[in-house]
Specification:
The chain is an alpha/beta fold. The protein is built from ten helices and eight strands. Strand 6 (144-149), helix 6 and strand 7 (167-170) form a beta-alpha-beta unit.
């Protein structure tokens, strides 16, 4: 059976051969969410690559860049009303001072509030060393869809996110780590999605090729002790549910 290809978190604009990758994505009919790290990069991607059948660009404001590019915050909110796909956004407390942490939290709270008011948006969220805070800010009644990208929080935090009906996007580095496998085993199968996080994962760092999807499906099937075809069908259904 042919795999259903999708990638809900790709940094397309960070590859030097983006046009070649776009053609590759089109050939494989891979439904792709291309996240960005700043509004200026989102605008640039839309202008440069225009409308693509299989790619949707997401408006982003990466938490690690907020402190450095504060002038991009109001631009983000100007663009937000017209964007269904939002990402990469979130919190990152791994290496932050008190000022940066507060700025991140205040901005993220405003993003969630605005998205909730608009409704129907799909968010790809970064939560490194800040899963507890991310989940608390979003809550369990978000008016849209939440994808926790490369989730690495505690199992208690994972359960709270599951109870809140969030999706989880899984990449190659996750399936190849013990902690990642432990997390994947606990996520309901109807909440699993595939991401590359290219070019930040080992299998997509130097070259983006959709064979990573086939490898991921096989490894996810092995972790969840099911057939690869069954896993592919489940993932296709999950992606469709994400877009509903």
């Amino acid at each position: 059976m042919k795999s259903f290809y999708h990638d809900v978190h790709l940094h397309l604009d960070l590859y030097p051969n983006a046009v070649e990758i776009i053609n590759h994505i089109t050939d494989f009919k891979s439904y792709t969410i291309a996240v960005t790290n700043l509004p200026v990069l989102f605008d640039r991607a839309l202008k440069k690559y225009k409308d693509q059948k299989y790619i949707r660009f997401a408006l982003g404001l990466h938490p690690e860049l907020i402190n450095q590019y504060t002038e991009q915050i109001p631009v983000f909110f100007e663009r937000l009303k017209d964007c269904r796909y939002v990402g990469e956004i979130g919190l990152d407390f791994k290496k932050t001072d008190e000022y940066s942490r507060k700025l991140q939290v205040d901005t993220f709270k405003k993003i969630i509030n605005e998205c909730n008011n608009y409704g129907g948006k799909i968010l790809s969220i970064h939560s490194r060393s800040a899963a507890k805070e991310v989940i608390e800010i979003i809550g369990s009644n978000f008016n849209g869809k939440i994808i926790l990208h490369w989730f690495s929080g505690t199992l208690t935090e994972l359960e709270k996110a599951i109870d809140s009906n969030y999706f989880f996007s899984i990449n190659g580095d996750m399936v190849n780590s013990k902690k990642g496998q432990n997390i994947i085993k606990r996520i309901p199968t109807n909440r699993l999605l595939i991401e590359s996080d290219g070019p930040f994962t080992k299998d997509t760092h130097s070259n983006y090729h959709l064979s990573f999807v086939d490898d991921l499906i096989k490894k996810l099937a092995n972790i969840r002790e099911c057939d690869s075809d069954e896993m592919s069908i489940l993932l296709k259904g999950n992606f469709k549910n994400l877009l509903e």
